[in-house]
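Hi again,

Forgot to attach this to my earlier email, sorry! This is the prediction with magnesium ion bound. I've pasted everything inline since the attachment limit keeps bouncing my files.
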Amino acid sequence: MSISSGQNQTGSAFISTCDADTVARAAQALRAGALVAFPTETVYGLGADAQNAQAVARIYQAKGRPADHPLIVHIPSMDLMGEWAGDIPEYAITLARDFWPGPLTLVLPRSALAKDFITGGQETVGLRVPAQPIALALLNEFVKAGGKGVAAPSANRFGAVSPTNALAVKEELGEYLQEGDLILDGGQSLVGVESTIVDCTGVAPMILRLGAVTAEMIQESTGLEALYKNPAGIKASGTLESHYQPKAKVMLDVIAEAGDGLIAPDQIPTPDGVIRLAAPFTIEQYARDLYAALRLADEKGLEIVVVLQPGGDGLAAAIRDRLQRAAWPTRSAD
Ligand code: TXA
Ligand code: MG
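C-alpha cells for the complex follow:
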C-alpha cells in the first residue's frame, strides 16, 4: 500500500491508537490549536477547535477547500445544541432525541458562538453528535478541557473520496499535517457514507444530503414530510456535481471489461480479467465498503472502475447519490 510522500517526512508518526490517555491528550492538542483526525461511524473527520479561527483555517488549507463552505460542529451531547444554535424548532429537538448520537447533522439558526469562519458566512450552523465511542470520548474530553465543539469535515482533499480508516486519512492528508497533529485510529467506520444533513430552519425538515438516517425515519420521528432538496444559495460541498471522486474513472451500470475494476453486489459474477474490488452482501455492507473499494482502485492504478448500483430506498439511495457524483458519463469520456 502506498504511503503518500510529502513535505512532511514525519507523516508516518501521526497515526495513534486510542487508549484513554491518548484521547485526553488529543483533546488537549485540539484546545491548543492542533488538528486531530478522528473516527466517526460515518467517515473520518479532520477536527479543529470550532472557536479557534487559526486552527479552522488550517482545515481549509489541508483540504484545499474553498473558505465559504461551512463546517459541521461536533458536540458530545444534545445539551450543547443551545450553545451553538438558537430558535430551535420542536421537530429538530425530536430528531436530536431520536437519532443522536448518530449519522445525522442538523442545520439550525446559529448563535453568536458560530462565527463566519465556521458557517461560511451563513446564518445557520450544522451540528452533529457522532455515535463512534472514540469520537464521543474525544468530544467529552474536549468539553472538559473548556472547549465547546469540534469542527470536522471529512478528512479528505476537496472533491476526493472520504476516508473510512486511519491509513486512508494519512494517505489523503498526511503531508499537510504538522508536528502536534494527530490521527486517532478507531478502525473501519461502520456506516461508511457521510451523515444525513437536515435543514431545520423551515416549518418542516428538509434533507440536504442523503445518508443512513432516511427520509422515512425522519418522517416517522417528526410526523412531518421530509423533502430532499438542495436549495440554491446554500453551499454544501457534498452537493456539488463532482465529488467523492477517485483518480480512476467511475462508470455506472456498464459491462466491465478486462482490466477494469468492479464493485457490485455479491451475486454478480466477476467477468474474466476484471479486478473485483468489493462484493457486498447487503446494502449496509455496500455503504461500509464502497469508499475503501474506490481507494483500492487507485492503489492498483486502475483506469476504470465499473460500479453496479444498488436498488432500493434509504441507504441505497444515499449510495447512488454519492456514486452519481463520482461518476464519469461514458467509457470514451476523458
Ligand atoms: O458524516 C459526516 O457528516 C462527516 C463526519 C466527519 O462527521 N463530516 C462531513 O463533513 O461529511 P463535510 O464538511 O465533508 O461535509 C459536510 C457538509 C458540507 O457539504 C457542508 O457544506 C455542509 O455539510 N454544511 C455544513 N454546515 C452547513 C450549513 N450551515 N448549511 C448547509 N450545509 C452545511
Ligand atoms: Mg466531505
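Residues 20-228 form a domain with the DHBP synthase fold (CATH 3.90.870.10). The pocket of threonylcarbamoyladenylate (ligand 1) is lined by residues 40, 42-43, 45, 69-72, 105, 107, 119, 122, 124-126, 128, 130, 152-154, 194-195, 197, 208, 234-238 (CB under 6 Å).

That should be everything now.

G.
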